[in-house]
Amino acid sequence: MFELIPSFRRRGTDLPDVFEGFENMFKRMWENTTLPDLTADIERNWVPRLDVSETDKVIEVSADLPGLDKKDIDISLENDVLVIKGERKEEYKETDKHVHRMERRYGSFYRSLRLPVEVKSDAIEASFKNGVLKITLPKTEEARKKIAHITVH
Q1: H-state helical runs in the chain
Q2: pLDDT tens column, 66-89
């Protein structure tokens, strides 16, 4: 009966890394799909999260950028694509203290967002307070006229 139970030698490197096997299995699950790879965030630099909302007059974008100053942020608009990029500097310094965990992400980031309508590029406003970037993009008059409200019968 014991011959049917797989056994592993428990010496040195012969011990299988069960967790590594599970991690590889999950990575292979996502390889050829159009769904986002949930494990990829572990292996890359940080990417700030965005909220995008719209009214009949403006598009509003909010981005969480903790630990940055406004001088660290660059915003541009080209061909209806809003680009937010910058860099968060690492705060870690060599000391005699033992670090148990480092989960915060550092480095440069780049987010681009294709806008659904044309905006007035000369009237865009941006503010940065308490680590939150808010960008207000007023729609052009032509874009505002293209909104069609449809009545359901």
Answers
A1: 18-30, 40-43, 141-145
A2: 889 999 999 999 988 999 999 887
